[in-house]
Amino acid sequence: MARRDACSESLRRKAVFLVSQLRTAETETLLLDAIRNDPSRDVRSQAVFWMGQVHTDRAAQEFGAGYSFVGRRGASRASGLSR
Fold this sequence. Notes:
Elements: H1 9-22, H2 27-37, H3 41-54, H4 57-63
Helix pairs in contact: 1-2, 1-3, 2-3
């Protein structure tokens, strides 16, 4: 994901998805890096989507909206947010 030229955009989108599925200690860090630094709007958008699927308090804090993920993996509750 470090290579950020126009030719590698589709590879970076795929890499964002693959990273999101790993669920390792580095998943959040790599997704946040893509959100903050990738020149492609599509890649950043995909990273934001998949970061939202990570369901950790760190992920919520990074978005700064006071979210708190509670419960089992896949079941989340956002506090202070109405749908």
